[in-house]
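Appendix B, example 12.
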Amino acid sequence: MWWDAIQQWFFGLGKQYGVNPIIFGAIYVGAIPLFTLSIAWFVRNLRRKRSIILPMLCAGFCFTSAYLYLIVVGMNVPLWVYLLIAGMVLIGIYSTIKKVRAQLAMPEAKTDDKPSQIPQN
């Protein structure tokens, strides 16, 4: 019974503001692996002293894609929602910078052209 009330409230918000919660959730969850790959690409390019513009743009787009959907499609969304999005983006930027710095502090894995030796018993 309480689950039905929560579902009605949740989907009612989507109707009220013109945002489909399923699409928002799919974009949000679907962007997570793409964001992770973009950050890995970003770190690799930093280590190899290559351009970081494209990986940075990809990571930024993946991070904000669900919120962009809300901003573009949403109608009459309250100001506090925009403030919440701005706060979440700022916290996400801070967190991502910390993760990138931690990745850069780790030594890069070296790969040898030699096949690995398997001990024989």
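The mean pLDDT is 87. The radius of gyration is 21 Å.
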